[in-house]
Amino acid sequence: MISKRYIGYVLAFLIASVPARYAAAESIFSPSAPSAGVKKDVPFVPTPTEVVERMLSMAKVTGRDIVYDLGCGDGRIVITAAKKHGARGVGIDIDPERIKESKENARAAGVTEKVRFLQQDLFKANVREATVVTMYLLNSVNLKMRPLLLSQLRPGTRIVSHSFDMGEWRPDDSSTLSQSVYYWVVPANASGRWKWKNGKEKFEMQLRQKFQQAEGTVTRNGVSFPMKNVRLSGDRLSFNVQYAAGKKPVTASFTGKIAGESIRGTIKKQSGKGVAWQARRERGTVQRIDGEGETPTAGSGRAI
Questions:
Q1: What total of structural domains would you count in the chain?
Q2: Whole-prediction pTM value?
């Protein structure tokens, strides 16, 4: 039989083996009692300190960022972003006790000038200024939040979710060490029909998009060619097109930045310098990239 004294020694060893930096960080965020009488979509379960650090690392948070944490709980994510990375932060939670606790934790960490906390329904939140959004919600809540995020956030905004994904919107990256973390970059809406000229040649690009995945064709002087290696990250679009030029096929590499109804960038062939490229989207051809709802407003710059 194992003695109680032996069990005590084992427990003491395990506690002592926890890295000091985690223990010190957790000391600011003491366990808290649940609030009564508040209707919540998600129960409060704190994100472990090591996961918080991994989320902020995946998003490459810097002092230039504004981090919004949706369902902020005790405020640990935005407080850590401010204290360790110099970012500004906004925490949103419907529970007044969590907001009170977050403010107390921010004072204890000395970051009250960099962070603020709002008692608010997540589904009514305004997150337009965010450059990074963090979440630890549920799959069902993430799916309900998805249209709000795509309609409000600017292309290039980073989203990081602890444990739960966003359905058909596949993450751009993920980490599965101990607990899953998912990472997305909000894509620009590049869907529709785009037109441009290069000297006497006329070009048309028809692009279909589902979240950050895109495919389509480029038509050159009435002949269509498939777009290859299409990549869309934030407001940056790149792809290759191979077409016939005399007896030899020519591969042209396109790169461009999407800004509302225009794309500006360069075209580079296998040999030679890149030339300027500018395309305009034909009015009325833009589509929602999540396959739901009405056609988005042209020129909005948002994904849907």
A1: 2
A2: 0.84
